[in-house]
Design a protein that fits this description.
Number of helices: 6
Radius of gyration: 17 Å
Oligomer: single chain
Bound molecules: ribulose-5-phosphate
CATH class of the largest domain: Alpha Beta
Strand content: 15-25%
Strand order of the largest sheet: 2-1-3-6-12-13
Helix content: 25-40%
CATH architecture of the largest domain: 3-Layer(aba) Sandwich
Structural class: alpha/beta
Length: 235
C-alpha cells in the first residue's frame, strides 16, 4: 500500500470517528499520524460551529500543541476525571481488538486517558490489522531510567530482544514523562498477550507497556473497500 493511499485510509477512519463527537463532550485525544487527521478535522468542525463546548485531554505534548494550533480547548484529568470518549490510533490490532500501542512514544498517558474514558475508540488504516500481536514490530515498554540496563536484561529474559529507543544522536529517547522506552522484538510475535501483560505489570521499574488488552470498545478501520466498524464482543 502506497503512503498516499495509507494517509487517505487514516483520514477516512478519522472522518468516520468524528461523528461520535457531540456538543459538550470531554474527549481524550491520542497521539500519532492518524490522530493528526482527527485533530485537524475536529478543529475544522469547531471553527465551522458544527460542534460546541468540546474540551480535550491530550496524551502527549505534540498532540497538545497541535490541538492548541487548531483551536481545540484543552483540559486535564485533574479537571475532568471521567471522559466521555477517548480516540486514539494503534500500531497493531488483533482479531479480539487487543492492541499494541506506543511506537509513537506516548503509551503511558494514552493508556491512562483511555482507562478513564467511558468509550475508547481506535482509528486505523487496514495495515494495522494482524493475526498475532508483535508480528509487525516491537512492543514498546516505558521503563524508569534508574536501572535501565537491568530492566532491559529482565525484559530479554521474557524471550524478546530488548533495546532502548534512541534519538538519531544515539541518546536514549525520553518520553514526555522523562522515562526511557524499551522496544521489545518478539521473533515469532506475542503468543500469550495476557500472560505477558501480567508479567510486565508486576515488575518494578516497568512503568507501563503497549499491550492494550480488552480496552478498545470500537475500532474504525479505513480499508480500500470503505470504512469498517468493529465492536468489541463483551459477552
Ligand atoms: C503513539 C501511538 C500511536 O497511536 C500509534 O503509534 C499509531 O500511530 P500512527 O497513527 O502514526 O500510525 O500509540 O504512542
Amino acid at each position: 500500500m502506497g503512503t498516499v493511499n495509507r494517509e487517505h485510509l487514516k483520514h477516512v477512519a478519522a472522518e468516520k470517528a468524528l461523528f461520535l463527537v457531540k456538543d459538550g463532550m470531554v474527549i481524550g485525544l491520542g497521539s500519532g499520524t492518524t490522530m493528526a487527521h482527527f485533530i485537524d478535522l475536529l478543529g475544522d468542525l469547531l471553527r465551522q460551529r458544527k460542534v460546541s463546548r468540546i474540551q480535550a485531554v491530550p496524551t502527549s505534548e505534540t498532540t497538545a500543541e497541535h490541538a492548541r494550533r487548531v483551536g481545540i480547548p484543552l483540559t486535564s484529568l485533574d479537571e475532568h476525571d471521567v471522559l466521555d470518549l477517548a480516540i486514539d490510533g494503534a500500531d497493531e490490532i488483533d482479531l479480539h481488538l487487543n492492541l499494541i500501542k506506543g511506537r509513537g512514544r506516548a503509551l503511558l498517558r494514552e493508556k491512562i486517558v483511555a482507562a478513564h474514558a467511558r468509550r475508547f475508540v481506535v482509528i486505523v488504516d487496514e495495515s494495522k490489522m494482524v493475526r498475532r500481536l508483535g508480528t509487525h514490530g516491537p512492543l514498546p515498554v516505558e521503563i524508569l531510567p534508574f536501572g535501565a540496563r537491568a530492566h532491559l536484561r529482565w525484559l530479554a529474559s521474557l524471550g524478546c530482544q530488548a533495546e532502548l529507543l534512541r534519538e538519531p544522536s544515539g541518546d536514549p529517547v525520553h518520553t514526555d514523562n522523562g522515562n526511557y522506552l524499551a522496544m521489545c522484538h518478539f521473533p515469532h510475535g506475542i503468543t500469550d498477550p495476557y500472560a505477558l501483560a501480567d508479567c510486565l505489570n508486576a515488575q518494578p521499574g516497568i512503568l507501563e507497556h503497549g499491550l492494550f488488552l480488552d480496552m478498545a470498545d470500537t475500532v474504525v478501520v479505513g480499508t480500500e473497500e470503505g470504512v469498517r466498524i468493529l465492536e468489541r464482543n463483551t459477552t
